[in-house]
Amino acid sequence: MADTLKIEFRAFEAADGGDLVIFVGENLKPGPAVAKRLGTAANGLIAKAAAAEKFKGKAKSAMTIVAPASVPVDRIVLVGLGGDKDLAKTDYAQLGGVVAGKVAARTATVVVDLPGLEPTPKNVADMALGARLRGYSFDRYKTKKDDNAVDGATTLLFQVADPAAAKKAHKALDGVATGVIIARDLVNEPPNVLGPKEFAARAEALSKLGVEVEILNEKALEKLGLRALLAVGQGSERESRVAIMRWNGGKTSDQPIAFVGKGVVFDSGGISIKPGGGMEDMKGDMAGAACVVGLMHALASRKAKANVIGAIGLVENMPDGNAQRPGDIVTTMSGQTIEIINTDAEGRLVLADVLWYVQDRFKPKFIVNLATLTGAILVALAQEYAGLFSNNDELAERLSVAGNETGERVWRMPLGPEFDKMIESKFADMKNSAGRLGGSSTAAALLQRFVNDVPWAHLDIAGTAMGSPQSEINKGWASGWGVRLLDRLVHDHYER
User: Fold this and answer.
1) Which of 128, 159, 190 finishes a domain?
2) 227 a catalytic residue
3) What span, in angstroms and rounded, lies between the C-alpha atoms of 263 and 38?
4) Cys staple from 480: which of 180, 244, 258, 413, with CB 3.0 to 4.6 Å?
């Protein structure tokens, strides 16, 4: 997907041509910066058009007016901010998405004079980020043009009180937007194009930003003892990989922080094969790994002042004659053994080895892992929240706050000794599936056995990362969920 959006920041000045985007609350009155440009006749024009279209100025609503001859623009686009309760929880990224959706393939002057609000440069940068994410599409495999598609570049000229400060804030966030887009692209790619080897190559591309990337092939993984991960991929003709990404933006003595992603590039279920209906969506079972790659891009692009490890386990789960079977027992890198009850409970096997490898080799301050791990989390939280499991209250709270601030929300789920007991096996140290009841919590309980005492959080993103609900900043199938959340976590708490 090629970017077709140009963004500039300017001081308040008269608009000339194109669209003029102005913001109004429920009283439909624009701010003073707008009134100066449109004159007192603006209120009457807006009121008349709003009455005709039944436009109430509700939050994230919009209406387009053909500009009268006296106004030197083509169209006036009204964007609603809502009432006092809406103003208190304004999501600037979503607001930017609304704007981009109304002025696609046009040049628009966006007057950032928001009645009832005093947006900071960071808020303006969030609007620009939202606009960029709204413009994303994944159509590289389409050979025929959509007759209903709007073609052409979009130019947004944000008029703000401090253009230099807004531009600086935007520069930092633009890399985050690119990170989200990288994650979306990875999840959207078809599985015949993106295997473990190809995914690892995408991670290697981060070296251009100064990220140190190390790719472990099957021979190296066998030597290290990541046998649970290798067992998942042994039914596929495509070799498994682990990619280790290191961003060294802190002091040499700083303890690193770590992010681990599940990267099952296609999940057939293996011998415990999935039903055919909807199996094509299992190309997205690597959304956790995609998020980690996007996050590492975001951190490196803004030169985050932290030492960060990103690790992803890349496998394909297929049912050939060499595939692992229900009843098999695998020995993990930690030495602990796992009885295979269901070969479709494979993601936790991948993560078990990568989590152990990361905590053992890098001694991180904390580990956050992301995985499209269980269908059970959708039953509990639908597609509105990611499930959060953690052994550390401080880390869990920081993730919750970052989630609320970015709109990538998490909900803490139970993780206790009862669930740990449910995964006990008659024949091994544990079993990889304890059945339907508490499925998300028993999966998390297994992962917890591979982090020792390291502060750790597991994000089950099965409902939020693919096929996720449409919003003003996401109109596609893959959301790139988690990049903005984790970038905010790092920015707010772990940079010196």
Assistant:
1) 159
2) no
3) 53
4) 180
> Does the annotation count 274 as an active-site position?
yes
pLDDT digits (tens, 9 = 90+) for 174-201: 999 999 999 999 999 999 999 999 999 9
Question: 155 and 179 share a domain?
Answer: no
**Are 265 and 139 in a shared domain?**
no
Instruction: State residue 1's pLDDT score.
Output: 41
Residues in the chain, overall count: 496
Ramachandran category for residue 327: left, alpha or beta (phi over 0 → left; psi -120 to 50 → alpha): left
Per-residue pLDDT reduced to its tens digit, 187-237: 999 999 999 999 999 999 999 999 999 999 999 999 999 999 999 999 999
CATH number for the domain harbouring residue 126: 3.40.220.10
Q: What are the binding residues?
A: 262, 267, 285, 344, 346
pTM: 0.96
Could you give the C-alpha distances from 494 to 307, 367, 408, 428, 441, in angstroms and in order? 9, 13, 19, 39, 28
Work out the average pLDDT over 65-88. Answer: 93
**Tokens encoding 164:** 């230099």
**DSSP secondary structure code for residue 470 in this structure:** P
Strands 75-80 and 154-159, sheet pairing: unpaired
Q: Are the CB atoms for 30 and 113 separated by under 8 Å?
A: yes
Q: Cα(428)–Cα(69) distance, rounded to whole angstroms? A: 80
pLDDT for residue 495: 96
**Whether the Cβ atoms of residue 258 and residue 362 lie closer than 8 Å to each other:** yes
Q: Which one from 197, 274, 305, 475 is the annotated catalytic residue?
A: 274
141 and 274 in a single domain? The answer is no
What's the number of domains the chain is made of?
Answer: 2
CB atoms within 10 A of CB 459: 30
212 and 142 both lie in a single domain: no
Of these residues, 348, 398, 431, 484, which one is catalytic?
348
Q: What does 362-420 look like in DSSP terms, one character per residue?
A: H--S-EEEEE---THHHHHHTTT-EEEEES-HHHHHHHHHHHHHHT--EEE----HHHH
Measured distance CA(123)–CA(203) in Å, rounded: 30
Q: Which of 11-25, 169-183, 337-351 has the lowest mean pLDDT?
A: 11-25
Residue 73 in this model has a pLDDT that exceeds 60: yes
Tell which of 159, 194, 216 closes a domain. 159
